[in-house]
Amino acid sequence: AKNRVPLMAGNWKMNLNHQEAVVLVQKLAWTLSDKKHDFAKVEVVVVPPFTDIRSVQTVIDGDRLAIKYAAQDVSVHASGAYTGEISAGMLSKLGCSYVVVGHSERREFHAETDEVVNAKAKAALAAGMTPIVCVGEGLDVRKAGEQVPFTLAQVDGSLAGLSAEQVAGLVVAYEPVWAIGTGEVATPDDAQEVCAAIRVRIAEVHGEAAGDAVRVLYGGSVKASNIGGIMAKKDVDGALVGGASLQADEFGGICRFY
Ligand code: PEP
């Protein structure tokens, strides 16, 4: 994918107890060091639940590992009377490099609109973190053949008002909802179709340089056995991985696709 460094992000969702979370990041570090993973070739990010971030940070910092970590969500607010919310400032102080915003599970179960996702992306950027902005169509839209216009509308809404430099530096994750957690992975051509359309749209709206630089990931039932075909596509710059990221060997295999 041109000069863009591929990125593999493992979203643990609301899984694992605390000890399992610590063991998972340790095992991932072991498997990647055992296989002599080149972090300059593929960036590796883990996305634990909020409550495990500090312990993951301790493991990673303690051994100066090149693995990065992220949060699964962030508040649109900077601080104040928002019980239960976690601000971008809090996450950046914990050393998070990235924040996932607008995951389909947030959009579906928490009614997050593009407007909310946009505000979360802006909050992450203002705190010096990189948003991973999730978009993607459901099964009905796919069956109607409307996946490209549907997804591009989400991209437009979620990135509205950002500068060209901000868009160039962020990450968009194309995750067709019908492929998430279902075992039904999109074909490499399906992934390429929408990832390419996202890049073209970003180039049109935010300029050629932003379109060239923005990293577009695919997500949905990615495994070590299917990542190769997906990464062979020129507009796919990595993957957002759910289920398979809970196993160190499997996620390690995804990171070591090259
Ligand atoms: C996800 O939720 O971002 C995801 C891609 O999940 P899975 O890999 O389990 O389909």
From TrEMBL:
Pathway the protein takes part in: Carbohydrate degradation; glycolysis; D-glyceraldehyde 3-phosphate from glycerone phosphate: step 1/1; Carbohydrate biosynthesis; gluconeogenesis
**Catalytic positions?**
103, 175
Q: Which GO terms describe its cellular component?
A: cytosol
Top-rank taxon, per record? Bacteria
Asked whether the UniProt record includes Isomerase among its keywords, one would answer: yes
UniProt keyword Cytoplasm present: yes
Which EC number(s) does UniProt give? Answer: 5.3.1.1
| Amino-acid positions noted as binding substrate in the UniProt annotation, renumbered to this chain | 11-13, 181, 221, 242-243
Catalytic activity line of the entry: D-glyceraldehyde 3-phosphate = dihydroxyacetone phosphate
> What UniProt keywords apply to this chain's record, in alphabetical order?
Cytoplasm, Gluconeogenesis, Glycolysis, Isomerase
GO molecular function terms listed in the Swiss-Prot or TrEMBL record = triose-phosphate isomerase activity
What is the top EC class of this enzyme, as a single word?
Answer: isomerase
Question: Where is this protein found?
Answer: Cytoplasm
* Pfam families (alphabetical): TIM
What function is annotated for this protein?
A: Involved in the gluconeogenesis. Catalyzes stereospecifically the conversion of dihydroxyacetone phosphate (DHAP) to D-glyceraldehyde-3-phosphate (G3P).
Complexes and interactors:
Homodimer.
Q: Which HAMAP family match?
A: TIM_B
Q: Of which family is this protein a member?
A: Belongs to the triosephosphate isomerase family.
Protein name per its UniProtKB record: Triosephosphate isomerase
The source organism is: Nocardioides cavernaquae
Organism taxonomic ancestry: Bacteria, Bacillati, Actinomycetota, Actinomycetes, Propionibacteriales
